[in-house]
Each structure stands twice: as C-alpha cells, then as structure tokens.
Amino acid sequence: MTRFIALIIVLIPIAAAVIGVKLLRDTFFNIIHAPFSHLWTQLISSVLLFILGMVLISGWIFYRERKKNAATKRKS
Predict the structure, then answer these.
(1) Any idea where the domains of the chain sit in the sequence?
(2) In this structure, what DSSP letter does residue 69 have?
(3) Three-point CA angle 67, 64, 48, nearest 5°
(4) Does the predicted model carry a pTM greater than 0.90?
(5) Predicted pLDDT at 66
(6) Where are the beta strands (DSSP E) in 1-76?
(7) What's the Cα-to-Cα distance from 46 to each of 2, 23, 35, 72, rounded to whole Å?
C-alpha cells in the first residue's frame, strides 16, 4: 500500500509537467482553454506548471540517488 501511495505522489508532478507542455503547445497554436482569458496568462501558467513538475521530479531523483550514495561528488 505504501508503494502505491508513493507512486501516486510521484505521478502528481509528472501530470503537472505534462499539462504544462500541453498548455504551452496550445498557446503556440493560439488555442485558449476555459480557465484562461488571455494567451499570456495561459503561457505563464504553462511555463510555471512545467518548471514546477520538472523541479519536483528532479529533486526527488536527486534525493533518492544521494540517499543511496550514488550521486557523484563535486570536483573543486
């Protein structure tokens, strides 16, 4: 059950990034969806959704790799 909950938690940022890409594509082709009244509001929200989803997924992967000591160390 805990793995299923973890899977759902991981799928939420992935869904946000996918929705962001879809809205970004629709903005490029001048398609406005219902909650947005202007293209620029749709563009800003799509970029924010995409960036938020990617940051959460990459942070989760980095945390997991560091927990396993598999992340590479920085060279100074």
Answers:
(1) 2-67
(2) T
(3) 140
(4) no
(5) 86
(6) none
(7) 31, 5, 12, 32
Q: What is the DSSP secondary-structure string of 52-64?
A: HHHHHHHHHHHHH
- Residue 16 confidence (pLDDT): 95
d(CA 76, CA 74): 6
Give long-range contacts, CB 8 A cutoff, 24+ apart: 66-71: none
The tokens for 20 are: 């962001």
Per-residue pLDDT of the chain (76 residues), as tens digits, is: 999 998 999 899 999 999 999 999 999 999 999 999 999 999 999 999 999 999 999 998 888 888 888 777 777 6
Nearest CA-CA partner of 62 in 50, 72, 71, 74: 71
Tokens standing for 25?
A: 């594509």
Contacts of 68 (CB under 8 A, 6+ apart): none
